[in-house]
Amino acid sequence: ARLVGGRGREAGYQNQKHGIVWHHHFRLEELRNLLGSGFKIEQVRWRGCLLAPICNWLQFPFFRLKAYDHPILKIINAAERWEMAKSFNETFGYNVILVAKKIAQ
User: Fold this and answer.
1) At CA 50, angle to CA 47 and CA 53, rounded to 5?
2) Do residues 49 and 88 make contact, with C-beta atoms less than 8 angstroms apart?
3) Which residue of 4, 9, 39, 51 pairs with 83 in a disulfide if CB–CB is 3.0 to 4.6 A?
4) Per-residue pLDDT tens over the stretch 32-82
């Protein structure tokens, strides 16, 4: 399984003193809390749904092999870009774009 990531992408992050989590699905309320009261959220767009997570999984071996110009990877990337251009709701969105404005104090 070395080709697809060895011990997994989380290897090197588990049990670290800095507490980094390599992957987390945020809810909008969590993002608001991270920004704090000094920011106003102006726009939220949830992207990706089904193809994006599958494409991420399929891309990983190419990245491990540094095969960035592989024709199959280019097809996978195109499928991911196509779906990421679509909008979904928070329940189904795989990725989020959040625009926030700092509030003058």
Assistant:
1) 80
2) yes
3) 51
4) 999 999 999 999 999 999 999 899 999 989 998 999 999 999 999 999 999
